[in-house]
Amino acid sequence: MNDTARTKDNELNPENDRPFWQRWGEVFARLFLKYCPQIIINQFIKFDKKVDGAISFFFRHYGKTPFMISMSKKVQYLGIEKLFLKGPKAFVYFFLFYLVRDTILYIIIPIYFAKLTTGN
């Protein structure tokens, strides 16, 4: 994989012309696979196949399940109100999932790392 976003002819390479935060998962996976023992990798792949690839899908899509991706698309073209009227139960699951996920990602984890780094 080429580290630069441009090819030899100075044209943009679409594979590498993504923002760095979209490539973090690939970098992490390569580092993890490089230093992780093969037996652990094999056990993970075996377990992932038992659950129909749900774990790798979850990591590949930044913590979203197939349900969350389809609901996000429905919110985009229906709007929040119409989505709620169409299926209140699914909307509540969708809302609670984002509430819990965002609370963990943007509040709990930063507080934890701040406490670790300040020494208090």
Structural summary, described in words:
With 120 residues, the protein is mainly α. The chain has a domain at 36-118. Helices cover 72% and strands 0% of the residues. It has 6 helices and no strands. The chain has helices at 20-35, 38-50, 54-60, 66-78, 80-86, 88-118. The radius of gyration is 19 Å and the shape is extended. It starts with 19 loop residues before the first helix and ends with a helix. Residues 1-5 have low confidence and may be disordered.
List the topology elements.
Blueprint: H1 20-35, H2 38-50, H3 54-60, H4 66-78, H5 80-86, H6 88-118
Helix pairs in contact: 4-5, 5-6
Shape: extended
Helix and strand pattern: HHHHHH
Q: How much is the average pLDDT? A: 76
Helix content: over 70%
Q: In summary, what is this structure?
A:
The protein has 120 residues and is mainly α. The chain has helices at residues 20-35, 38-50, 54-60, 66-78, 80-86, 88-118.
Characteristic terms for this protein:
120 residues; mainly alpha; 6 helices; 72% helix
